[in-house]
Amino acid sequence: MDHLRELLKQKENEVTTSEDIYKVNIIKDLFADDGIFFKMNIYTAYGILYFLGIPKEEIENTYMSLTSAEEYMKTSNPYFMGLVE
Is 1 helix (H, G, I), strand (E, B) or coil? Predict the structure, then answer.
């Protein structure tokens, strides 16, 4: 997610149309949740990755990485989230 947040910052500096500014703001709100890719459908996720500039040939692997079991554990397990000591 950190890499995607960095891409989003870069995109935010590049956008010029009101439509793209709107998209950046929506994605920023979504990225407040580290587990957001587990909660959205694959088409929306692919669209976000494409909008952020992930090459088409890397989108599937990037999505699979974002929705891996390891990522799920990081975003949903209270021990990994630092909520339980």
Answer: coil
In a domain, 20, yes or no: yes
Tens digit of each residue's pLDDT (9 = 90 or more) over 10-62: 999 999 999 999 999 999 999 999 899 999 999 999 999 999 999 999 999 99
> CA–CA separation, 67 vs 47, rounded Å?
15
Q: What range does the domain containing 66 cover?
A: 2-75
Q: Interior CA angle at 67 toward 58 and 47, to 5°?
A: 50
SS3 category, 44: helix
Full-model pTM: 0.84
Q: How many domains does the chain have?
A: 1
Query: Is residue 47 in a domain?
Result: yes
28 is a domain residue: yes
Query: How far apart (Å, rounded) are the C-alpha atoms in residues 11 and 31?
Result: 14
